[in-house]
């Protein structure tokens, strides 16, 4: 058996075992990788930076680095990696940790290390977020929805999001299950309430023509989902606003617990959760309203749903890595902006904190 693990195999090790986990929507960290010795006479590919245990493969201070990092995390090809190939990738990391790496292993064989050894159910992996989430997006954007169908698709969307958040949680600091349940219920209630309320208002608006009413209804899912995402973040992480979150100096030492840093972390996370559904739920209605006027779809109405599915898939694939790459996982803040006791506790001008995702 070859000791070389393809890129999709490295990513599968994280998505399968639970710790892309800390690169997931509700996670709180990065990927762990190693720096194996290069074999003699073997050129190192430019695409594979030197491996460093505890650090992502790509530089996280730049948007492009974060974007490439998350492209690895959400790569759907990892869904098709076999169990035996996955075990091979995981074994490489174990060999490295015990200093028994086979000769000839290079940076190309890096494996993403999870927090736990749990296997994540395929639809809830980060690599499965787009392929399994796209049908839900298509359902959310179906025209002429009844109240029952609106409730169903909003509930299904928030249920899927909750399962992804829980499956990809940060396992290094376990959170009570009650927090996830609280966030889930709050998200479902807010999403359903807003979606149903807006649909009823649009239907009762006599000033709109049927065509205009239909177009407006297509945009209803966005405010409902965005509001639910904010509600989910606040409910699940409200204790951070009261207790604060750890801030660290340049050497990784904990300086203190800051409520101000917690506010910044929640704000950045909430903005990400608002930006994420924007292209997914706003672009497809605009594009479909244009395409449906073409002779191709007018003469072939059965093609509307397949075309809409492809448009939603493309929007989802674009929006997810862009949105979660907006802010660094480990954000930096000036100590002068934090509580006086924290500013006095370190000579560092800046400290870092884990914002979560």
TrEMBL record:
Keywords annotated in UniProt: Amino-acid transport, Membrane, Mitochondrion, Transmembrane, Transmembrane helix, Transport
Positions with biased composition (Basic and acidic residues): 1-14
MF (Gene Ontology): citrate transmembrane transporter activity; monoatomic ion transmembrane transporter activity
Domain of life: Eukaryota
Protein's membrane topology: Multi-pass membrane protein
Entry's Gene Ontology cellular component terms: mitochondrial inner membrane
Chain intervals for the UniProt region annotation (Disordered): 1-35
Compartment(s) where it occurs, according to its Swiss-Prot or TrEMBL record: Mitochondrion membrane
Gly residues bias locations: 20-31
Keyword DNA damage belongs to the record: no
Ranges in a coiled coil: none
GO terms, biological process: amino acid transport; citrate transport; mitochondrial transmembrane transport; positive regulation of cold-induced thermogenesis
InterPro entries on file: Mtc
TM helices/strands, residue ranges: 132-156, 181-202, 214-235, 274-291, 303-327
Keyword hit for Mitochondrion: yes
Family: Belongs to the sideroflexin family.
PANTHER family: SIDEROFLEXIN, SIDEROFLEXIN-5
Name of this protein: Sidoreflexin
Species of origin: Gallus gallus (Chicken)
Gene expressing this chain: SFXN5
